[in-house]
Amino acid sequence: MTKPPAAPTSDQNGPSLAPALPPVSEPAPLSTPVRVGTMGWGYADWSGVFYPAAAASKEYLALYARTFDAVEIDSTFYGTPREAQIQQWARATPPNFVFCPKVPRVITHEMRLVGAAEEIKRFVAVMGLLGPKLGPMLLQFPPDFTRAALPQLQAILPVLRELAPGERDAPGARFAVEFRHRSLLAPDVSALLAEHNVALANADYAPMPKRFEITSDFLYLRLIGRHGAFPHHRAAQSDRAPDLERWAGVLRENQARFPQGAWIFCNNDYEGYSPQTADTFKRLLGLPVAPPPPPAQGSLF
Prior knowledge:
By secondary structure, the chain is an alpha/beta fold. The chain is 27% helix and 13% strand. The longest helix has 13 residues, at 150-162.
């Protein structure tokens, strides 16, 4: 790996990442559960590279689940899936697999949380069909969701807390939020999230400062990069090893602060090919790396 750069200076909106730790050949795994996967699985660019060239797209999820034990569902951002679709996802994956769905944009971008309590509850109820395979849900807010919208956030947080695992009879759900406006990266907002055990998603995303902060008993990290950075997503086209080392180092140093585990998802735009990014990060965290799905055994007849 390349030598990590010098430690970044603190960002005015919050603490920056710690310096990269020196790379080690066989790091010990973290003491808390960690899952690393990609943002979505249905990429045509992965055919013949990650997926066998002969595999049909309907087989991709089952093949993906042979290599990774978690995935962030991007498609739910565009609408709540049919119950039959969710049941199919559950059948296609092994018992220990976890899905982390993005909350539909109608809630975060169109309603902007105003009067959205029932919509959120309906979404949680439908996704609850995944049973134990349901992981944290991500509310990703648009860049124009600013501090002016703080009252809407304050109003919805008790609803999210109400839906937490083990509370009442509602399907259990944990939540993470990702802000894309710097005005919401502030101590009072973090304290508000912590009060309701909602995770502030840590994100390595080009328009936003790199920050590490924990506001819940679990961690949610998104390695996003810059959208549209690469012409294809069939191979790594950038080396972000120093950044990955810094993230791995800060997770390792703070692992006691997220006892319920960490969910980490990599985007194709981070280095050009998210399966490779995810594998690199798993190695840095001392996690076993599984090979890509093997091609189907051919028949002589």
